[in-house]
Amino acid sequence: MLVRTFVPAHITAFFVPLFHHDPLKAGSLGAGINLDKGTNVFASIERGTLERHIHIAFNGEPVKRKEAVISYSVADELVPNDFVGEVEIWQYFDFPNGYGFGNSAGGALGTALALSYTFGGTWLKAAQTAHRHEVLNRGGLGDVIAQLAGGIEVRVKAGGPGIGVVDNLFFGDYRVLVVPLGRLSTREVLDGDVVKVIEREGKLALEKLLRNPSPERMMVLAREFAEKTGLLSGELLELARELDKVISTPNSMIMLGRGLFALLREDEVENAIGVVSDLNLPYDVAGIHEGKPKVGRWVG
Amino acid sequence: MLVRTFVPAHITAFFVPLFHHDPLKAGSLGAGINLDKGTNVFASIERGTLERHIHIAFNGEPVKRKEAVISYSVADELVPNDFVGEVEIWQYFDFPNGYGFGNSAGGALGTALALSYTFGGTWLKAAQTAHRHEVLNRGGLGDVIAQLAGGIEVRVKAGGPGIGVVDNLFFGDYRVLVVPLGRLSTREVLDGDVVKVIEREGKLALEKLLRNPSPERMMVLAREFAEKTGLLSGELLELARELDKVISTPNSMIMLGRGLFALLREDEVENAIGVVSDLNLPYDVAGIHEGKPKVGRWVG
Question: Is the complex ipTM higher than 0.90?
Answer without folding.
Answer: yes
